[in-house]
Design brief:
- The structure is a single chain.
- The protein folds into two domains: about 5-160, Sandwich (Jelly Rolls), CATH 2.60.120.280; about 175-280, Arc Repressor Mutant, subunit A (Orthogonal Bundle).
- It is globular and about 50 Å long.
- It has ten helices and ten strands.
- By secondary structure, it is α+β, with helices and mostly antiparallel strands.
- A hairpin with a 5-residue loop joins strand 5 (about 50-55) and strand 6.
- Helix content is about 40%, strand content about 20%.
- The protein has helices at about 105-110, 125-140, 145-160, 175-190, 195-200, 205-220, 220-240, 245-250, 255-270, 270-280; strands at about 5-10, 20-25, 30-35, 40-50, 50-55, 60-65, 70-75, 80-85, 90-100, 120.
Length: about 290
């Protein structure tokens, strides 16, 4: 059995940056994960050993990357990916799953994107500094949420400053504040029916202008973002809990279970029940 640590971040309203899950794992030879689609950004740092990432590009093609110690890889939301440990020298990695209004901007500043998912540091000391912050987060799941978010900021700062592909950090834009209001409102109300008009009104913006800046900032239309948030919450509940599918569907804004199943299969390629069977986390029982 693989040695691992795994933690889930509490559901708190951190908008600019937010943790979802984090941990580390010493993989067995040829241990693989995927094909899978993430709802958020997922960054792995390879501590030791070797492995391979296969990731789908924006143009639909797939690309394979071979990685070793002190290197890392980024998986972006909606990107189909598979990664596999080496047969002779399986990797050990630490990982963070996160997102937020500024996540794409900061990752871009580190030179990371769908088309360039590989992290290489300017030197061993810089790589180790990035690794150590990630391990700190993974090993301090009992710390306060503010403490962990603070270290997520330190991680991104280290990632940017150590990256061989650094692009520099851009300043905040006024539209970010509008989108922050929208995302907060969606997070608080996704369980019920929401219209673009309602969300735009909360931000005191014209519907068409709001839809335009939301898509430019978040990478998808408001309606799609609501669906992603609902389904992301559903996957969290199915992965870590035992509630029936119909209850999860209702809790995530789908009173009709059939509509939920159709939306879920369209995004993830399998039914909710099939997905849960493949991704359910069974925590070791205390003895």
């Amino acid at each position: 059995m693989s040695d691992y640590s795994f933690s889930i971040f509490p559901n708190e309203n951190f908008i600019d940056l937010r943790l979802y899950q984090y941990g580390w794992e010493q993989c067995e030879p040829l241990h693989s994960f995927g094909p899978y689609i993430r709802n958020h950004y997922l960054f792995h740092f390879v501590i030791s050993g070797r492995g391979t990432l296969n990731a789908r590009q924006d143009d639909g093609s797939s690309r394979s990357y071979r990685l070793g110690a002190n290197e890392g890889f980024l998986i972006c939301p909606g990107q189909i990916n598979t990664y596999c440990a080496d047969a002779e020298d399986p990797w050990k990695y630490v990982w963070l799953e996160f997102d937020g209004l500024r996540a794409a901007e900061y990752l871009g500043s580190a030179g990371l994107s769908v088309s360039q998912p590989i992290y290489r540091a300017t030197g061993p000391a810089e790589a180790e500094a990035t690794r150590d912050i990630m391990l700190y987060i993974a090993d301090h799941s009992g710390a306060s949420t503010l403490h962990l978010i603070g270290h997520l900021c330190l991680f991104l700062d280290a990632l940017i400053n150590s990256s061989a592909y650094q692009q520099g950090v851009k300043g905040a834009r006024l539209r970010d504040f509008y989108i922050q209001e929208a995302v907060t409102y969606i997070e608080q109300n996704y369980q019920r029916e929401l219209t673009v008009e309602e969300i735009a009104d909360v931000c005191k913006l014209n519907r068409n202008y709001f839809s335009k800046v939301f898509k430019e900032t978040m990478g998808c239309p408001p309606q799609e973002f609501v669906i992603r948030m609902r389904l992301a919450r559903a996957t969290d509940m199915m992965r870590t809990g035992d509630a029936p599918i119909r209850e999860i569907a209702a809790a995530c804004g789908y009173p009709n279970q059939l509509h939920f199943s159709r939306a879920f299969k369209k995004r993830y390629g399998s039914s909710p029940r099939e997905w849960r069977n493949q991704n359910k986390i069974y925590r070791p029982k205390k003895t």
